[in-house]
Amino acid sequence: MSHKRLFIPGPTEVTFENLTALARPQIGHRTAEFSELYGRVVSRLRTLLGSENRVFLFTCSSTGVWEAAIRNCVARRVLCCTQGAFSERWLAVARANGKEADALAVDWGRAVTAEMIDAKLSAGDYDAIAVVHNETSTGVMNRLDEIAEVLRNHPDVMFLVDAVSSMAGVPTPVDALGIDVCLAGLQKAFALPAGLTVASVSARALERARRIEHRGYYFDFLEMLKYDERGMTPSTPAIPQVQALDAQLDRILEEGAGRRFERHARLARIVQDWTRRHFAMFAEEGYESPTLTCVKNTRGISVAALNEALGRQRAQISNGYGKLKEQTFRLAHMGDTQEWEIRGLLAAIDDILGL
Ligand code: PLP
């Protein structure tokens, strides 16, 4: 089957170099060689995140680390900010783990603001808040800096952040923002295949975990910590993924994190301008995501037919998520995507739709 170049918001296109890194000879995960690799990866992730916190490598997709954050950091009650499919699912995960979980719900397409959070936390007795930085189903990015500011008024509340479709594409300065758990799977802006999730975990979060029973085993932060001290993971990690992450971090640092973030911002502007010219933005103004654009289908085109036509040119975009199917479509501009690729995609869509 011929490959279609991915412009979907995950998994994103993986470069040939990174695919090759997945095929390196395997090494044992209880060897000095692995610990060296682990140490190199973790220390560069800390630099990328501007954090002195521990960074753990979980062999699972992001959903697993949603569960980990809830099990380790929520003693009583968590406030889950919901604004789309993924944030709603994190709430469901909290409840499935037997925690008391309330929603701070806004309409799909809108952002959760610091004022809303402040009001809700002041009225309730919460020990954690869960925020999805960049809601992939709607293309809305929340302002973590403003949220972090109001969280200073609530010092006992753990700040849990899903940066799944923002980390490595947008600055996520963990320590400056006081984030306790910041997680991201690698198949979005890291532009690697799915299967590994990285998460920074603060000393405060580890302290909280010590006081919580029944954290489970696979996702227990304290178990992760014990092995982290030896440069290892508690169980066999996805070693090829760690090798590919090592190779990709070389490339991210070679480009420069700042330049990588600027590239994402530039591509977002190109796609947003095109969207405003031909359709409309689904995201609330001022909160448009730099990593993907959710286009409101104001022309009533068949998104499925558009994707089929793009498929014949070996490209793929994403239909709207869940209830937004055919009402919206999503164009991802994250990872290693370059300007010429995005301009080529938009030109192909123009051509197909006669715009
Ligand atoms: N959080 C966000 C923002 C996502 O976009 C996704 C998936 O696209 C997830 C969490 C869940 O990730 P996974 O399906 O890899 O577990």
Order of helices and strands: EHHEHEHEHEEEHEHEEHHHHEEHEEEH
How many helical elements? 13
The end-to-end span amounts to: 30 Å
Number of DSSP-assigned strands: 15
Structural class: alpha/beta
User: Looking across the biggest beta sheet, what order are the strands in?
Assistant: 2-10-9-8-5-3-4
Rg over alpha carbons: 20 Å
* Residue share in helix: 40-55%
Q: What is the global morphology? A: globular
> Which strand-content bin applies to the residues?
15-25%
| Associated small molecules | pyridoxal-5'-phosphate
- Give the integer mean of the pLDDT values: 97
Ranges where pLDDT stays below 50 over 5 or more residues in a row are none
For the sheet with most strands, the description reads:
7 strands, mixed
Report on the structure:
- There is one protein chain.
- With 355 residues, the chain is α/β, with parallel strands linked by helices.
- The chain is built from 13 helices and 15 strands.
- The chain has helices at 16-21, 32-49, 62-73, 85-96, 114-123, 144-151, 174-177, 203-210, 221-228, 239-255, 257-278, 303-312, 339-353, and strands spanning 5-6, 54-58, 77-82, 100-105, 128-132, 134-135, 140-141, 158-162, 181-185, 197-201, 280-281, 292-296, 315-316, 318-319, 328-332.
- A seven-stranded mixed sheet has the order 2-10-9-8-5-3-4, with helices on both faces.
- Helix 7 links the parallel strand 8 (158-162) and strand 9.
- The longest helix is centred in the last third of the chain and has 22 residues, at 257-278.
- The chain is globular.
- The model has no long low-confidence stretch (mean pLDDT 97).
- The chain binds pyridoxal-5'-phosphate (PLP).
- The site of pyridoxal-5'-phosphate (PLP) has 12 residues, from helix 3.
